[in-house]
Amino acid sequence: MEIEGHRPGSADYRRVVAALFVAGLATFALLYSTQALLPDLATAFGVSTSASTLTLSLTTLGLGFALLVAGPASELLGRTRLIHGSLAASAVVALACAVAPTWSSVLVLRFLEGVALAGLPAVATAYLREELHVSAHARAAGLYIGGTALGGMSGRLLTGAVGELAGWRWALAASGLLAVGCALAVRVLLPPSAHFVASPPGLRLVLGRTLRAVSDPALLALYGIGGCSMGMLVAVFNTLGFRLEAAPFHLGLGAASLVFLVYPLGTLSSAVSGRMADQLGRRAVLPFGCVLALVGLLLTLSHSLTAIVVGLGLLVAGFFVVHGIASGWVPARAHAGGVSAAQAASLYLFAYYLGSSVFGSVAGPAWTGAGWLGVVLLALLLLGVTVVLAGVLRRTPALVAAP
């Protein structure tokens, strides 16, 4: 029998959506808190452009691997317990990053930050599927992804502004304090799971779930879309600060971080595309995000700052359409195919953050070797793979969950 779940408009529905919006904001503010600071960190510690991107790549790498454990662990511990623990631990590590004495300690703490952050993304979409009415799944997933978009923007803007005024240490401390406030808000707002059923994850059971989660061609295509689309976005934004700092723009840290104001477009596009997907179907909406991202990438080749900002806005909007649709599609497809939704979501996010880590690091040599054109060519290649995988999804038959 289908679980009823909280319907849109109810008080508990609003609490769920608000709590996960705030949790997504905190998680992604911390994840990307160093991105606007990369030129400052490179100067402060005397490291190269490629080395400075490790503060992001190692975080996403730690997050990706931790997801492989957090997903199965949530089947035993429960969704809400993992969310609260993750937010509290990541806030503590973020404050520790602000007082790290050496470059090596910064990198170690940023890796641990990724591990601590894994609890929310590992279970968020599975929690939404379990607790909300089926009519609201894609819409709520879009709102959650919107919170992550706003978090990515807030983290970059906050650290960019504070970093220019008081230095990178105070900037990271500010992001840590933001996370503390968000963790307290989620503690108050998030309703306990009403439909979660614990399932002790024995090794054989975990391996069986993993095999089922990698045997469906549609799920594999979705994992690839997550990795390539995220790699595309991070490659662009990891090197953007260095481009805006150089001729002909010569922008300072705070001014360059203002380009992240395009991120609310991701919040809007993910929410709108979620509603469209409920009405038109995910297969019809996902390619639209690819087209938006393509137009945006091409516009960033301009030497006009206005055109670059418009291009970044379209790129962000397109990416969050793709990611919002794909991340909500994974647990729905997994559930219909008899696969653990949490396991499939963890594998999707593992691919997502592996793409971020690998291609975010590759962007450094691309920038050094070929400038902005090299970065855009890398991003176009990843977008091309995303389009091919979207075509695979259109040809893959849909599944219907058994009663």
Automatic annotation (TrEMBL):
CDD domains: MFS_NepI_like. SUPFAM superfamilies: MFS general substrate transporter. InterPro entries: MFS (IPR011701), MFS_dom (IPR020846), MFS_trans_sf (IPR036259), Sugar_transporter_CS (IPR005829). It holds the Pfam family MFS_1. PROSITE patterns: MFS, SUGAR_TRANSPORT_1. The keyword Transport applies. Keywords: Cell membrane, Membrane, Transmembrane, Transmembrane helix, Transport. Residues 12-396 form the Major facilitator superfamily (MFS) profile domain. It is a multi-pass membrane protein. It comes from the Bacteria. It comes from Nocardioides conyzicola. This is MFS transporter. It is found in: Cell membrane. The chain crosses the membrane at residues 16-38, 50-70, 82-101, 107-128, 140-158, 170-190, 218-237, 249-272, 284-301, 307-332, 344-364, 370-393. Its main location: membrane. Belongs to the major facilitator superfamily.
